[in-house]
UniProtKB/TrEMBL annotation:
It comes from the Bacteria. Pathway: Lipid metabolism. One of its GO terms (molecular function) is 1-acylglycerol-3-phosphate O-acyltransferase activity. InterPro entries: Plipid/glycerol_acylTrfase (IPR002123). SUPFAM superfamilies: Glycerol-3-phosphate (1)-acyltransferase. The chain crosses the membrane at residues 20-45. This is 1-acyl-sn-glycerol-3-phosphate acyltransferase. GO terms for biological process: phosphatidic acid biosynthetic process. Signal peptide: none annotated. Keywords: Acyltransferase, Membrane, Transferase, Transmembrane, Transmembrane helix. Residues 95-203 form the Phospholipid/glycerol acyltransferase domain.
C-alpha cells in the first residue's frame, strides 16, 4: 500500500506567511491536544472496562489516530506533502521498526501509521507537561540509557508488541550521515521476531535539531517514508558473542540507511 498526498489535490504551494501561521497553529494544536488527552480523554478512557492490556491498547490507538489527524492537518493547511511506501508491512507482532530521524515529526508519522505500537522516547518527553499524558497512558518506553530500558524493550517485543526505535537517539544533523547507537541492535537480538528498516527523508530539510519550528523552508516540505525489506536479527547471531552480533547488525543497519538515503538525494 502506498499513501501519497503530493498529488491528491494538486495546487500551488501555499505562500510563506500562511505556512508560517499554519505551522504555528499545528504545534499549538499539538500542545493543547496533549493537555486535553492528559486531563480529559485518558481519565475518561480509564473508566471503561477492560484489563491493563486493553487499556494500553485503547490509549495507543487513540494517540495513533490523533497523530494521523495532525499529519492531515499539516497537509491540508499547506505545510507539507507526504508519501508513504509499504505501510501495510508495519504493525506485526514482535516487529522492531528502526528508522532514521531527520525531523521533529518522524515519530508522529510512524505512530500515526501503526495503530498499536510501542515506542522508545526521550526521557525529557516524560516530564514535558504537553506530552507526558499520552506517553504515560500509552506506556511508551523511556530512553534513559539504562540496562533496564533495554530489558523492557526486548520484553515488549517478546510479548508480541510492535516497537519503534530511532537508533540515533536524537535528530540527524543536516548534511551528515546518521550515526546509530548499538542499543537498537542489542534489543533486536534479544527480542525481535523481525527487524524492519524505515527510511525517512524530508525535502527541503526542516524541523531539525538545529532549527526552531518557525524557520520554515521557502516551499512546502515533502515527507517521504519508505518501508524496507525485513531483516532476520538471528542471522547476525551465529558464531559470535552477543556484543559481536550486536556490532554486526548495527553495522549492517547503518550501511543500509546510508545507501538508501543516498537514493533520495537530489541529483
Amino acid at each position: 500500500m502506498e499513501l501519497a498526498a503530493s498529488s491528491l489535490t494538486p495546487r500551488r504551494s501555499a505562500p510563506w506567511a500562511w505556512r508560517l501561521i499554519a505551522t504555528a497553529l499545528s504545534f499549538t494544536l499539538f500542545g493543547l491536544g496533549g493537555l486535553c488527552l492528559r486531563l480529559v480523554v485518558f481519565p475518561l478512557l480509564s473508566l471503561l472496562p477492560g484489563d491493563a492490556a486493553l487499556q494500553r491498547r485503547r490509549a495507543r490507538q487513540t494517540v495513533s489516530r490523533l497523530f494521523w489527524l495532525f499529519v492531515q492537518f499539516m497537509y491540508r493547511s499547506g505545510v507539507l506533502t507526504y508519501e508513504v511506501e509499504g505501510a501495510e508491512r508495519l504493525g506485526r507482532p514482535g516487529q522492531l521498526v528502526i528508522a532514521n530521524h531527520p525531523s521533529l515529526i518522524d515519530v508522529v508519522v510512524l505512530i500515526g501509521l501503526i495503530r498499536d505500537a510501542n515506542c522508545v522516547v526521550k526521557q525529557s518527553l516524560w516530564d514535558n507537561p504537553f506530552t507526558r499524558g499520552p506517553i504515560r497512558a500509552a506506556q511508551y518506553i523511556s530512553n534513559n540509557g539504562s540496562a533496564e530500558m533495554l530489558d523492557e524493550a526486548a520484553s515488549a517485543l517478546r510479548d508480541g508488541q510492535t516497537l519503534i526505535i530511532f537508533p540515533e537517539g536524537t535528530r540527524t544533523t543536516p548534511g551528515q550521515a546518521p550515526q546509530f547507537h548499538r542499543g537498537a541492535a542489542s534489543i533486536a537480538l534479544r527480542g525481535a521476531t523481525v527487524v524492519t528498516p524505515v527510511v525517512i527523508s524530508v525535502t527541503p530539510t526542516t524541523l531539525t535539531k538545529a532549527e526552531p519550528w518557525y524557520r520554515i523552508p521557502a516551499r512546502r516540505f515533502h515527507f517521504h517514508l519508505r518501508v524496507g525489506a525485513d531483516i532476520d536479527p538471528q542471522a547476525f547471531a551465529a558464531g559470535g558473542a552477543a556484543p559481536i552480533a550486536s556490532r554486526r547488525l548495527n553495522d549492517h543497519l547503518h550501511q543500509h540507511f546510508i545507501q538508501e538515503l543516498a537514493l533520495d538525494e537530489p541529483t
